[in-house]
Amino acid sequence: MRVGLSWDMDRFEEAGAGWQDLLAEVAQAEQMGFHSFWIHEARERAADCPEPATFLTYLSQKTKSGQLRIAGRRVTRALPAHIAEEVSVLDTFSRGRAGLAFAPASRQGVAPAHVHEMIDFVTSSWAVDEMRYRGEHLRFPTHTPDDAPPGASVPEVEGDYRPQWEWGPETPDFLSITPKPYGSHTPVAVEIDDDETLEWAAQQGISPMVGADMPTAEAADRLARYREVADKAGRTRREVEAVLERRIALDGEADERRLGGSPRDILNAIRSLRGSTGISHFVWRRGEATPMDLYRFASEVQVLLQA
Amino acid sequence: MEFWTTSIGVAKMRPMPSALGAGYENFVRDAVQAEALGFDGFGSGEHHFMYDEFMPLPLQAAAAVAAATSRIRLSTNAMLLPLYDPMEAAEMAASLDVLSGGRVSLGLGMGYRPYEFDGLGTSKRTRGARLREAMEVIRLATSQERFSYEGKHYQYENETLIPRPIQQPIDQWFCGGTSLQGARRAGHAGLGYWLANSPFDHTENIVKEYRQAGKEAGFDESQLRVAAFKDVCIGSTIEEAEGLRKMLIESFYDEHILGYGYLVDEDGKNLYNPPQEHPLYQRFIQSLYCGTIEMVVEELKRYEALGMEMVFLPSQQHELIAKEVLPEFK
User: Fold this and answer.
1) What are the extents of the domains in chain A?
2) Are B11 and B45 in contact (CB under 8 A)?
3) DSSP per residue over B20-63, as a string?
4) Using 50, 70 and 90 to split pLDDT, how confident is the model at B243?
5) Is pLDDT above 80 for A289?
6) A301: pLDDT confidence band, cut at 50, 70 and 90?
7) Which of 3.40.50.720, 3.30.300.160, 3.20.20.30, 3.50.7.10 is the CATH number of B2-233+292-329?
């Protein structure tokens, strides 16, 4: 099982010093073997990070091996092509360490289909060169006609190749998002808070993620339900990574959203969740935890998850 | 006068095939070297949907540079602001400003390639007006805890930007090409004006026009800042310098200046693949200054005398420029 870290940004009073503390923690955590670092898109508190790709690209030059994951990405502020591009740029600067997880539609106040289309568009744009996209919520390029096939489509090969510098003022019907991600299979996940998204992601082979704010029992139910739907759709476990994010109280009390107790209690809780839901990536959402907590978790929980 | 520069690492050049991953590493490496050599700023341009994988998000490239450097300013040259939601652009800039300790300078242009607007889903027709409105939105967002803005294209009510940047407001430049019309617009709005490559005489006229417009609009001379892209090719002889320019033209500029509508005629019409004899193309070629070290120093001194706050030098000959040119301006 992979183990990563994310952060409650309200532990920091302001971005300046807070982000430096976070960067220092990442450096320690990478040394201790944590596999991934997740920055959530947010814009409510003073130290929130509204542009995780910018933050993680900075981090790409301060780390060597950790996966760099954009979390809670919203579909409304950034233009669709920008989202595809930002992951490609991060992946190239980090030599294949980028990943992307979308926020659930219900948290964004958009239709689930909007999020599904964005995921379909972004992943298609990485998989093919020239393409167009016709959806209910997005079109690429914008002049794509109503009678274009739904979703992504690619041009027929016809006539002589016309290089880009000979296009003139006309926009072709098909464009290529560039650069492509450095790696061939950039991880893409979506939070499965919404039933419609849970079913769609399971059927499409998109990785599920459950964030730290959902009660653990409900998270386990949803991840198990995802697996059932995926199995019925003929999807295998190897296609996806199921991601569970939890807060942890080392030597503290567990509650409905937080794992707690001794390191062994926490170890057993994670192993139990893995057994019942098939999670393959556990993310510790860090709030007031101390550097010593990080070390104890690394040495007393993380390394024993496989034991 | 400050000297900023760039690297070719953020795109692949046809005559010099290379891997993009290595190019990105070279981009960061060149920034580190430029800082060590004494350059004052380092940046990346922006283009989308390019076969040569040109950098689409220059502020993200600057984030990588920020992590590897400590002093040099981080610029965009130019970021095509009408291709962004203004608050998205402000958030990216503010995030980078926090991470870099307040080193961001936004060079902002309006873009000209039609497919970039069509692909990203914004209007090319309104790009000039949206650029000016978006620059004002960024100024307000980065200088006030809360702001409201009522424009034709953008409206905000009691909005706040998170995170709060270190620079308040963040440094902005209007990258307005080489047209007198662009200079007047920038002057009327009191925006710092960053000219594209052009021969000195034309540059001088544009700067005069810009300052005149700015004064007429009531701005103090100290608010009317000017900067310029200035490609220079240095050789031990003029012939050697011209050989370097020829290589640059054939490997990069011929395609990028002629092929995508960069040149704009008197009527504001973009020219696609005009003949190389076209006066506008010839003026561009003449703007790529060729000379010996002494001649290049003398040419740049004319820019300094014109009151340029910064010149943006090309991606090649960094070590030579640092050793022989920059000391003449200390």
Assistant:
1) 2-305
2) no
3) HHHHHHHHHHHHHHHHHHT-SEEEE----S-TT---S-HHHHHH
4) very high
5) no
6) very high
7) 3.20.20.30
Residue B200 pLDDT > 90: yes
Residue of chain B nearest A140, judged by CA positions: B119
- Which helix H or strand E contains A286, and what residues bound it? strand A281-286
A62 contacts in chain B (CB < 8 Å): 67
* pLDDT tens profile A115-160: 999 999 999 999 999 999 999 999 999 999 999 999 999 999 888 8
The whole-chain average pLDDT of chain B stands at 95
| Chain A interface mutation, best of B118, B123, B160, B168, highest count of A Cβ atoms under 10 Å | B118
User: CB-CB: which of B67, B114, B166 is closest to A171?
Assistant: B114
Identify whether the C-beta of residue A179 lies closer than 8 Å to the C-beta of residue B20: yes
Q: Which residues in chain A touch residue B55, judged by CB atoms under 8 angstroms apart?
A: 89
In whole angstroms, give the CA distance from residue A274 to residue A268: 10
What are the tens digits of pLDDT across the range A42-60?
999 999 999 999 999 999 9
Which chain B residues are within 8 Å of A177, Cβ to Cβ?
A: 49
Interface touch A164/B166, C-beta < 8 Å: no
> Residues for chain B: how many in total?
330
Which residues, at least 6 apart from A165, have a Cβ–Cβ distance to it below 8 Å?
A: B255, B258, B259, B260, B273
Q: Tens digit of pLDDT for each residue in B105-114? A: 999 999 999 9
Smallest CA–CA distance, residue A188 to chain B, in Å, is 20
Per DSSP, A164 falls in state: G
Q: Which amino acid is at B247?
A: M
CA of B240 vs chain A CAs: smallest distance (Å): 29
Spell out which residues of chain B touch residue A182, defining contact as CB-CB under 8 Å. Answer: 20-21
Q: Do A54 and B63 touch (CB under 8 A)?
A: yes
User: So where are chain B's domains?
Assistant: 2-233+292-329
- Where do the DSSP E strands lie in B187-278? 193-195, 226-229, 232-234
Rg (CA), chain B: 19
Question: What's the whole-number mean pLDDT along residues B89-115?
Answer: 97
Q: Give A-chain residues touching B91 at CB under 8 angstroms.
A: 43, 50-51
Would you say residue B182 has pLDDT above 90? no
pLDDT tier at B17, thresholds 50, 70, 90: confident
Asked if B56 and A85 come within 8 Å (Cβ–Cβ), the reply is yes
Minimal Cα–Cα distance from A300 to chain B, Å? 32
**Local structure of residue B7 (DSSP, 8 states):** -
Contact residues, chain A, for B255 at CB < 8 Å: 165
* Position B305 pLDDT exceeds 80: yes
The DSSP letter of residue B159 is E
ipTM of the complex: 0.97
Could you tell me which CATH class the domain A2-305 is placed in?
alpha beta
**Cβ count near A170 (within 10 Å):** 11
